[in-house]
Amino acid sequence: MRRKDPSLASPPLSNGVSATVSHSTVVGTTSDHSLDRQDFVTLSTAISNGDDLGPFVRRAFTSGRPDSILQHLRLFSRSKESEIEELCKAHYSDFIRAVDDLRSLLCDVDDLKTSLSDTNRLLLSAGVPLLTSLDSFLYAKSLSNNLTLALNSARRCVKLLTICARANYYLGNNNLYLALRAVDEIDQEVVKDAEGVPLPALRRMLVQYIPAIRGYAEKKISKEFSDWMVQVRAASRHLGQVAISRASVQRQRDEELNSSRSGAESLYSLDADSDPDDIAAAAACAPDAASTAGFDLTPLYRAHHIHTTLGLEDRFKKYYFENRKLQLTSDYQVSSMTPFLESHQTFFAQIAGFFIIEDRILRTGGGLVSRADVDSLWDAAVAKMVAVLEDQFSRMQTASHLLLIKDYVGLLGITLRRYGYAVGPLMDVLAKHRDKYHDLLLADCKRQVSEALAADKCEQMIMKKEYEYSMNVLAFQIQTSDIIPAFPYVAPFSSTVPDLCRIVRSFIEDSVSFLSHGGTIEIFPTVKKYLERLLVEVIDASILHLVNTGGLNWSQAMHVASNMAVMERACEFFYLHAAQLSGVRRPGHTSGRRDFPLKRSRDASEVVLLKLLCNKINDFVDNSADAINWMADDVVNGSVNGIELGNEYANEVYIYLDTLLETAKHILPAPVLRRVFYGVLCHVSDQVIGLFLSDSVKRFNINAVMGIDADLRQFEEFADGLVPLFTDNPDELSAGEDPRSALIEARQMVNLLMSSNPENFLNPVIRERSYNKLDYKKVVSISEKFRDSSDRLFGTFSTRRGEKANPSKRKGLESLIKRLKDIS
């Protein structure tokens, strides 16, 4: 700004507004410029307020009057200059005074600058030695710091290289866990620290090789684990076989220890608290080193530990479970090229070994597998085994094959039950096929029984040695005496009896064996049910068929009847044997009185024997009946060995019966002998009655009756000779058991014909006492044929032993015939 002299300044205005107003008044005097005055006021107001002048400029140019706004701006500027001049005039003295102060300050600054320069020069001259010393100190300190850093770096590198060397040593010795620990130490303490490795090349090398080492460890341990997975599969089969074999041995030991004091339901159960240590036993008898390696779970635990160290535990658990699941699925496959009977042991042993190993891993694997995982695998295995058993059992048609598989499945159940696995579904499958097994067993026994009966020659069995007697008689408790007989011993039965006993005993043992290993059923009632089916449906039916075919002679029929008597004793042994094998504590309670299962065949054999003997007697009677003189003039006389002889047929029958008795008493037991000969004598009595009733006999006299009486006495003598064979005390025989009672009808008829008072037959008391077996019609028919020698009905009677006929007897018979006809 240019300074102005105050004296030259124009007189000050009173104020800007007044000047403006004065100027405006001058301008406003012209009417042509009234609009410019208004614009000037507006523009001045805008400038005073600091508003934007753009609209004013735009309007001026739009209206074509830009000079007007320029003029207004010049006028406004001139109006403000006066104010500026007034302000400058008011502060001029202060400004001059400030300039003078500034000038004096500049002088003081120059003095100060000179003083500072002198002081600086003195300071520099004094501080040069100190600066030299300071530079030396700083250099030494920098050198010390560099050396310290170098030493620290060297120490870090030495430590790092030492760890690397240790890791290499562990890797060289295949100690992957310690190697990984060393690598983790490098990774955690050195590599992750930005200042940890002072050498970039070493850091880059470590960063590159640490993942490689971990990958190498994972790859190597995975290979070892894969090798172990291959080995453990082969080892599982051997382990399962050993475990099941040990269960079988233990079961046999339990059978020996508990056979006399515990039931079969409690047999075959190992102590659940004992450690079977099947793995150690299997490893001890492994056939080769590869199988032994499979029992060592160290590779598995090592792989689990290494993967845990690598932070891959969950992935390894999943990998292990999936691979074991695949192995188990592969074990399920049943080869269609090999019969299941040959491969079932391998099939079940493989599965047993698999779950024994899984149980060990569950207990010692540190959480490698969970109980839920093992249970899921077991449920799948049980479902598959059940399906396989159902399919295979449905195809089997041989009882022994089914029993072999069932027995092995039972041992499998015993083995795995010790390890806590639920084997109920397997036992249910076995129980489900119980009936089929016994049906097959019965069919097999039926074939054996048929072969035994067909091979029987119906001859008494001869035993030359004591072991034969023990094997064929004592073994089945069919002996009649506890005294060992002299050898050679002729048994009262044929070879069929011990053959049938062996078949039944084998059936009982097979049935108990099948029922003893599955479920909680009561064994003895079940075995008894199937035993009765064998005896009734197979043996009894087969013998009954043999007897009813009609191809037996009397000797064969006698041996069959004798065999049935022995089989009756054998049946008691069968029930007792079944009870003992079933574990019934008091077998004596099982042998109460029961119906003989072979009763039908026994009765049929005795009926056939009796029929054959009666047919033979019929032949004798038919062949000799014509020789009887029914109107003899004298009584037949004669005796042999003190026995009075009668008619020829009687002599032949007597000789036949006597010969038959000599043979039968060595074959038939007393009860059968009694029943057979009692029936024979009854038939003899019927034949005697039949002789009187025969159409060929038109009449007979007292001499013929006395001849028949002699025949009866001969037969009665024979009957009396049977009594000692039936009992040691004849007085103990009841009326129905006395052999003489079989001839009672013929005897009563002869007595009536020979009675002096035949009309007593009409007396109820006498008839009940002496003639209770006689039939009215038979008495009438026979009495009507009774004649004397003059051919008159009871006219005269021949003498008997020098006695004359009694006329009253004739009248009595006539009265008897008349009365009986009336009654009829």
TrEMBL record:
The keyword Transport applies. GO terms for cellular component: cytosol; exocyst; membrane. InterPro entries: EXOC6/Sec15, EXOC6/Sec15_C, EXOC6/Sec15_C_dom1, EXOC6_Sec15_N, EXOC6PINT-1/Sec15/Tip20_C_dom2. It is found in: Cytoplasm, Cytosol. Residues 425-785 form the Exocyst complex subunit EXOC6/Sec15 C-terminal domain. Residues 73-244 form the Exocyst complex component EXOC6/Sec15 N-terminal domain. Pfam families: EXOC6_Sec15_N, Sec15_C. Residues 1-20 are annotated as: Disordered. Belongs to the SEC15 family. Component of the exocyst complex involved in the docking of exocytic vesicles with fusion sites on the plasma membrane during regulated or polarized secretion. Involved in polarized cell growth and organ morphogenesis. During cytokinesis, involved in cell plate initiation, cell plate maturation and formation of new primary cell wall. This is Exocyst complex component. The lineage of its organism: Eukaryota, Viridiplantae, Streptophyta, Embryophyta, Tracheophyta.
